[in-house]
Amino acid sequence: MKAAVLHSFDEKLEKPEFVRYEDVPDPKIERPNDVVVRIGGAGVCRTDLHIIEGIWRSKVDVKLPYIMGHENAGWVEAVGKGVTSVKVGDPVICHPLVTSGHCLACRRGNDMHATESSFPGINADGGYAEYLLTGERALIRLPKTLAPKDVAPYTDAGLTAYRAAKKASRHLLPGEYAVCIGAGGLGHIGIQVLKALCAAEIIVVDRSPTALQLAKECGAHHVVQADGNELQAVLDLTGGHGAEAVIDFVGEGDSIRIGIAMTRNAGAYYIVGYGGKIDLPTIDMITTEKTIVGNLVGTYPELVELMALADRGLVHLATREYRLRDANQALHDLHHGKIKGRAVLIP
Question: Whole-prediction pTM value?
Answer without folding.
Answer: 0.93
